[in-house]
Amino acid sequence: MNFQLIDEFRRRTNATYEEAKYYLERFNGDLLEAIVAYERERTRGSGVHTGANRFLYGIMRMVQKLIDIRLVITDKDFKAFPIPLLLLILLSPVWHILVLVAILMLIMGYRFSFQEIHDPNMNLENIVERIKNKARESN
Questions:
Q1: Strand ranges for the chain from DSSP E
Q2: Residue ranges of the domains in the chain?
């Protein structure tokens, strides 16, 4: 996140640093989208980080992080197969089978590594925002 971008957001909206950081992160540094969302929230009269809203935002960031961190399985031909960490957590009830499969794959020459791979197409906040907008339009 660029400090000049945060200052520009603050200059145009008279927002706090926390609000500027929140909206710029939420819209991946897009200043115009962040300002529009900030003004939309301000006109509705709801705060950015109030009680349950702050908690849900924290949960969404944690789930997004679990989606971005991936177990990358590389075969002998260096083909990479990224698997989101969230999927591994969801498959934890069958962990004993996963361990056996992983040991078998290691014997066969596969390599395992964890990498943070951000996919702009899989942005949880944008998905939730679209669902909220659709719900507002239907009412």
A1: 69-74, 80-84, 111-116
A2: 3-48, 61-139
